[in-house]
Specification:
The protein has 132 residues and is α+β, with helices and mostly antiparallel strands. It is 31% helix and 33% strand. Strands 1-2-3-4-6-5 form a six-stranded antiparallel sheet. Strand 2 and strand 3 form a beta hairpin. It is globular.
Length: 132
């Protein structure tokens, strides 16, 4: 499975703009039902056994301005896709998918629900500004 081809197909079907950065990361601007958008980043890697996986994440905001980090971590309990984490001083919602056996529908759901969760977290922890 070629990750870029899969994500390009999913993004095109959903009219989500995408770009690939020089480092290979794919960024997709996912449209949400609220009319807002959220950028989701995807990168390919391997799990501890060497199987190829896709990392899917979206930034909710900078860690320094989060009102309550304990609440940010508890937010994970609400999620069916992904969990909250800290990456490069940002609070993110992240999810991983095993590439073998994943289809377009699995990627669309993962991207949408990670984007929606990051947008919700952004609203709850950062006062609702659409910064990402």
């Amino acid at each position: 499975m070629n990750l870029l081809d899969t994500i390009n197909r999913v993004a095109t079907q959903n009219r989500w703009p995408l770009r690939q950065d020089a480092n290979g990361e794919i960024r997709v601007e996912v449209g949400l039902q609220s009319g807002r958008t959220q950028v989701v980043t995807l990168a390919q890697g391997n799990d501890p056994e060497g199987d190829p996986i896709a990392y899917v994440w979206s930034v909710a905001g900078h860690i320094s301005v989060a009102r309550d980090l304990a609440a940010v971590m508890r937010f994970s309990l609400k999620l069916s896709y992904g969990c909250t984490a800290i990456k490069d001083d940002n609070v993110i919602v992240k999810h991983s998918l095993r590439l073998l056996g994943s289809d377009d529908h699995s990627f669309r759901k993962a991207m949408f629900f990670v984007a929606r969760a990051a947008d919700m977290l952004e609203a709850e922890a950062y006062g609702g500004a659409d910064n990402n």
